[in-house]
Write a structure and sequence with these properties.
Helix content is about 25%, strand content about 5%. Strand 1 and strand 2 form a beta hairpin. It has a two-stranded antiparallel ribbon. The chain is mainly alpha-helical and about 120 residues long. It is rod-shaped, with a radius of gyration of 36 Å.
């Protein structure tokens, strides 16, 4: 999942506040830490540099997250409806796969005459 964040927002609640200060305080001077543990400059250690990042962003908030997109499973038609619509039906006279086709009747040809001559 991808989520927008503010630099210094360790708990990803879209606001930099006291809860984020508490996270940094609990992990201060610790190595092998991640962003959600207070390592805001990604050097692996929670130290004074991370406190500076937190102090600069303190009080910053992001607007509310956009509403999630509709679940694809609920936005699609039920399978039975799709299959019913796709079920082939018998074509009537003058119809084909491409819809109604005009019926062309051949021109009558006089017997005993060559075509093109009168």
């Amino acid at each position: 999942m991808i989520r927008y964040s503010v630099q210094g927002d360790a708990n990803l609640d879209r606001a930099v506040g006291f809860a984020d200060v508490a996270v940094v305080g609990q992990n201060y001077q610790s190595a092998d830490k991640y962003f959600f543990e207070g390592d805001f400059n990604y050097d692996g250690t929670v130290d004074f540099a991370d406190m500076v990042v937190l102090a600069q962003a303190y009080g910053t908030t992001l607007p509310p997250a956009p509403a999630p997109a509709a679940d694809r499973a609920t936005s699609l038609a039920p399978v039975s409806d799709v299959l019913a619509a796709a079920r082939p039906r018998e074509a009537s006279a003058g119809e084909s796969l491409f819809g109604t086709v005009p019926v062309v009747r051949p021109r009558p040809v006089a017997v005993g005459r060559r075509p093109g001559r009168r």
